[in-house]
Every structure is written in structure tokens, then in C-alpha cells.
Amino acid sequence: MEFRRLAALVAVAEHGTFSAAADALQTVQSNVSTHVARLERELGVTLVDRAAGQLTDEGRAVVARARRIAAELDAIRSDVAAFRDEVSGTVRLGVIGTTGRWLAPRLLSSLAERQPGVTLSLHEGTSGTLEPQLVGGRLDLAVVHLPVPPHDLVAQPLFDEDLVLVVRADDPLATRSPLRLADLAEVPLLLPIPGTAFRDELDLAAWEAGVTLRPRAELDGIRLIASLTFEGNGPAVLPATAVPGFLREGWRSVPVAGLPQRRIGVAMRRRGLPSAPTRAVLELLHEVTASGAAGQPGVHPV
Length: 302
Prior knowledge:
single chain, 302 residues, alpha/beta, six-stranded mixed sheet, four-stranded mixed sheet, 9 helices, 14 strands
């Protein structure tokens, strides 16, 4: 099985059409079509539904494997270069938004100083969107909310983070510290959508306290919830780092007794050996987190 055939299929998956894939690969459409057709004949299945313009189930399975193969080939090149003391290559790192805001600048600075040959490709998302990209080979590492799916991923903890009620500084709740979960029973909150790990944690804590949280709205993504809160659309329970420094004068992060901490860690694929650049970024992530978390209210390095 030739890798260029797999690469052609991956390009079709990522760019949507054979012509767009050809442009991305800097070749002609007929070459892409030929590579995909030969791969289909070799496997004995249809990988691309030409009429619908999308991958078949078999095609998606092959693309997922092909991305992992491409990542392993990149790792081989990087590992060989590392034997010459040349740690170089690109590391694709996913980061949840609230953590990325304070972690990314420190990581980029340390990387430029310690590993100038390593290029960081940063991708922001939620844990729910980053984990499938990591499993599928689109990312090399991801800083996410733990735990992670145990069959596909492994993780190393980085820090624990307090959950707090974020309200305007002039809100009556701002001066009632600490609050109890029972105090929030009648407060309309901006909440995560049901089924997300964050919402499950909040609902479990509320259930244990004998209360039910009242949603003003249910939203997908902590950054979105935080943005709407800061625009005056209602209070929310958020990670401590969701309140940036320039907003702290007008807002209050109020501790709530009974709310758990959330644990943030760095995840990687269970199968496969991380490349030399990936290992370098992983090491720096632990160092930067340990040193930078001390300056973040409500963050406790593991």
C-alpha cells in the first residue's frame, strides 16, 4: 500500500473535493482521482461516494488510520534529527480556551528559548472537540479536562482549578462569600449543555447538595458562557481562569462551598511513541504549568 494513495484520500477528506485536494497537494485532479481509485481497488471497497461528495464509512476509517500513519512518519524524521541534537518539527497542540489564554504565551516564550527548532501549531477547542482530533491523528497533544476516554488516550495531570460563581461586582451575591450551592437554587445561570463533562460535574454537585440548578440558557463551550456572562447576560459557574485580569475590577469570582475542582491535564494517544518535538513540548508543558499556575488565582499545580 503506497502512502501517496493514502495522502490523496486524506486530502480529499480535508478539502472536500478532488480538485481542492489536488490544489492542496500541488498536483492535478487526475492524479488524485487515480491514487484514490487504485486504493479502492486494492482494498476492494468504495472509499469516496462521488455522487454525494463525501467519504463512505470505510473511507472515514481509512482516513483515521492514514492520519496516524502520517504522524508516525513525521515522528520518524524528527527522531532521527534528534540524534544529531536537532530537535525540530511541528507539534500540533490542542488547548481548551480558558487555559490557553494564560498558558499559550508562556509556552511559546519557553519554546522559543529552549527549543527554537520546534514549531507549535495551536488549536483551540473544548475537550469534547479536541479529544476526537487527538484520537484521529490531527493533534499530537491536547490540554483538556480530565478524565479522558481510557481506551484511546492517556493523560498526565497538570493542575487543579477552582470552580467559582462569576457575577458583577455590584451583584448582591458578590459580597456573600463563601456561598453554598443551596444559595444558587433560584439564580438563573448560564450553564453548559447537558451531557458535557462540565455540566455533569455541576449537576452531580447540585444533586449531592439537594438542589437543582436553574438554567437561564444552556450553551456549548466555556468561552462562550464566559463571553455572555461578561456582556451582562447572567451569572455563571466558571473555572477560576475564565475571568481575565483586565475584567477583574468589574467582576467577582465568588467561592461556592460544595463545588468540585476540575482537573486539567495533557492527553496523548495510547498507541504510538511521541516524536522528539512532541516529547520536548510535553516536558515544557509541565514546567510552564508548574511555574505559571502560581500566578493564576484558583489554580493549583499537581
